[in-house]
């Protein structure tokens, strides 16, 4: 699901840039044709809507699986302020352990929850600007069509920011990449006690 999601996000982001370029939000700011999926806006829209189905179906499968099995709660919660501060201080002192890559530190948990929420927000704002008549109530709630469009763009920027940091840190700890390709170590062999493990993990 992670890799389907990664590929789909790439399609959504680059096709989104193709749509954006037809009618820019930031005057004078364009994306180079190298980064745009689709020769012109209509093609980019086609890609965007094709990717949309994959993203929504895969995203729903991921969320339902994660909630039903308790995986999301186990991996991403709890997040304590003290752990957050400690992780930031440790990272600034280059003291982050990453022996057990199945245990995320507090910063990772926060970022992963953030990017999941950002993806959900993209679907909501995307629906609003796709069907502004049918979802007129949603459009009003978001502050009008143009605001929904800007929110959609800001959501994209947040996800792109996450991806850059996420990929850079994964490359710094290559065993995480292998774990993501192979399915990672079996959860059953991991010790339980969560308190001590909160300090482990890598900051991706
Ligand atoms: C899955 C649900 C989504 C739907 C239904 C959707 C729908 C749309 C629609 C209809 C537009 C055209 C807006 C216009 O006419 O101005 C658009 C633009 C765009 N989308 Fe999406 N989108 C979705 C997800 C995403 C995701 C996940 C991303 C990237 C992370 C993204 C990035 C963009 C960008 C960058 C634009 C161009 C912004 C603009 O100039 O309006 N979209 N989207």
TrEMBL record:
- Name the domain of life this protein comes from: Bacteria
According to its UniProt entry, this protein's organism is Acidisphaera rubrifaciens HS-AP3
Q: Gene3D superfamilies, from UniProt?
A: Transmembrane di-heme cytochromes, Chain C (1.20.950.20)
Which cellular components does GO assign to this protein? plasma membrane
Keyword rRNA processing attributed: no
Please name the GO terms that the record assigns under molecular function. electron transfer activity; heme binding
> What biological-process GO terms show up in the record?
respiratory electron transport chain
Compartments annotated for it: namely:
Cell membrane
Keyword annotations for this protein, in alphabetical order, are: Cell membrane, Membrane, Transmembrane, Transmembrane helix
Q: Which PANTHER family match?
A: CYTOCHROME YDHU-RELATED (PTHR30485:SF1), NI/FE-HYDROGENASE 1 B-TYPE CYTOCHROME SUBUNIT (PTHR30485)
Does this entry carry the keyword Cell membrane?
yes
Query: Which positions, given as ranges, span the membrane?
Result: 47-68, 110-130, 150-173
This protein is called: Cytochrome b561 bacterial/Ni-hydrogenase domain-containing protein
Domain Cytochrome b561 bacterial/Ni-hydrogenase positions: 1-183
Q: Could you tell me the membrane topology recorded for this protein? A: Multi-pass membrane protein
């Amino acid at each position: 699901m992670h890799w389907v999601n990664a590929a789909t996000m790439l399609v959504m982001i680059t096709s989104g840039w193709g749509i954006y370029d037809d009618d820019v939000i930031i005057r004078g700011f364009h994306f180079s044709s190298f980064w745009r999926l689709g020769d012109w806006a209509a093609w980019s829209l086609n890609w965007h809507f094709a990717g949309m189905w994959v993203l929504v179906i895969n995203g729903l499968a991921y969320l339902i699986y994660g909630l039903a099995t308790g995986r999301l709660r186990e991996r991403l919660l709890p997040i304590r302020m003290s752990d957050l501060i400690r992780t930031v201080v440790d990272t600034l002192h280059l003291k982050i352990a990453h022996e057990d890559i199945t245990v995320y530190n507090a910063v990772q948990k926060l970022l992963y929850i953030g990017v999941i929420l950002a993806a959900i927000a993209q679907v909501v704002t995307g629906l609003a600007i796709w069907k502004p008549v049918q979802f007129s109530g949603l459009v009003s709630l978001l502050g009008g069509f143009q605001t929904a469009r800007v929110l959609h763009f800001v959501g994209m920027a947040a996800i792109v920011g996450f991806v850059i940091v996420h990929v850079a840190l994964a490359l710094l700890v290559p065993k995480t990449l292998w774990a993501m390709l192979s399915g990672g170590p079996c959860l059953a062999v991991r010790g339980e006690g969560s308190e001590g493990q909160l300090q482990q993990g890598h900051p991706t």
